[in-house]
Amino acid sequence: MANISVNSSLVRNGYEVCNEGIQDLNRLIDALNRDYDNAGAKWKDNKYAQLGRIIYECTSALKRPIGDLSNNIIKLKELEVALLEYEGTNL
């Protein structure tokens, strides 16, 4: 069996990476919506509406992993608590 080592610092890094991923996805979603809205100031026709449907599909797809990443953060924080408790135990 492989020698595996996990500590609370590694777990904390894991949920920080998940949080950064959520922030990046939200920034991308906001940028797509903002750019689409800005384009609408000068461009209102069938092609603009078609682009709106594409933007909606893209932003919906980008939102899907946010829930998974949020759940991962919860689980990693639970693991961190358990590891901190274990690390504080004198054997």
Describe this structure in a few short sentences.
The chain is mainly alpha-helical and 91 residues long. The chain is built from two helices and no strands.
Number of strands: 0
How many structural units, i.e. domains?
1
**Succession of helices and strands:** HH
Number of helices: 2
Which stretches of 5+ consecutive residues score pLDDT under 50? none
Radius of gyration: 21 Å
Estimated helix fraction: over 70%
Report strand %.
under 5%
Query: What is the rounded distance between the termini?
Result: 23 Å
For the sheet with most strands, the description reads: none
The secondary-structure class comes to mainly alpha
Overall mean pLDDT stands at 91
Anisotropy-based shape: rod-shaped
Question: Which key features would you list for this structure?
Answer:
single chain, 91 residues, mainly alpha, 2 helices
Describe this structure in words.
The protein has 91 residues and is mainly alpha-helical. The protein has one domain. The chain has 2 helices and no strands. Helix 1 (8-39) packs antiparallel against helix 2 (46-87). The longest helix has 42 residues, at 46-87.
Please give the structural blueprint.
Blueprint (H helix, E strand, L loop, with lengths): L7 H32 L6 H42 L4
Helix pairs in contact: 1-2
